[in-house]
Write a structure and sequence with these properties.
The chain is an all-alpha fold. It is 68% helix and 2% strand. It starts with a helix and ends with a helix.
């Protein structure tokens, strides 16, 4: 179970596909004009990624090495087709909004990358959690982008107006705005990672040990004695 939890943490935080690995940039920049579109694209990708990881891990000892990539593409394409049919049947508005980017999941580097790097070398259960973790990380990235772009660009969140239209920055809702928002979110994420990764500053001993702890005074006394021994030698 610890291994499965580690795969979830890895996909969402440590190796987030959007903010850390910078993978799947085509749908990331194209469909994140709103929170709903970003969340829908992320969840669609997660379903395909999880299902394809499970099947590839199950067949990892059967698929010949020479044809593993074509086999992976066939498996992924099958699940993409199923998911697209389900969207057409139950969420036609989302299917229309995502458009061509749903079939392009077949060649998404996140899907094929996890299939080659992890699912083809590991058992089914960890591969499933790897797919869920990476999918949730991708969904989180797209949802954050969609939320910021929709809020600043059109003043709404999930079609509910929060900011008057006169105060919106229209370019954020357009294609160039995706680059601006992505750059800002990545910069914030890097700042947080760097600040948490810094080592604590080394405590310096003051000249007056009267206000310090006994341990500090003892260490300073030991250092003084050691210096005297070195001088006598």
């Amino acid at each position: 179970m610890n291994r499965c939890v580690e795969r979830l943490y890895n996909g969402i935080i440590k190796e987030n596909p959007t903010f850390v690995l910078m993978l799947g940039m085509c749908p990331t920049l194209a469909v994140t004009s709103s929170l709903v579109n970003g969340f829908g694209m992320g969840m669609t990708t997660m379903v395909v990624l999880t299902a394809s990881n499970a099947i590839i891990a199950l067949l990892r000892n059967i698929i010949p090495d020479k044809v593993r990539m074509p086999a992976f593409i066939v498996i992924v394409a099958s699940f993409v087709t199923i998911v697209q049919f389900m969207l057409q049947a139950y969420l036609p508005s989302l299917n229309s909004a995502l458009g061509i980017y749903i079939p392009l999941i077949v060649v998404n580097c996140i899907i094929l990358g996890r299939a080659e790097a992890y699912a083809s070398k590991n058992p089914v259960l960890p591969s499933v959690f790897d797919g869920i973790g990476m999918g949730l990380g991708f969904t989180l990235g797209l949802s954050c982008l969609g939320l910021v772009r929709e809020l600043i660009g059109s003043g709404t969140v999930a079609s509910f107006r929060l900011i008057p239209e006169d105060y919106c920055i229209k370019i954020i809702g357009l294609a160039p705005g995706a680059f601006f928002v992505l750059a800002g979110l990545v910069a914030i994420q890097n700042k947080i990672r760097i600040s948490h990764g810094k080592k604590p500053k080394e405590m310096k001993c003051c000249s007056d040990c009267s206000g310090c702890s006994l341990e500090c005074g003892e260490r300073k006394e030991e250092a003084k004695n050691l210096d005297l021994v070195k001088e006598e030698a």
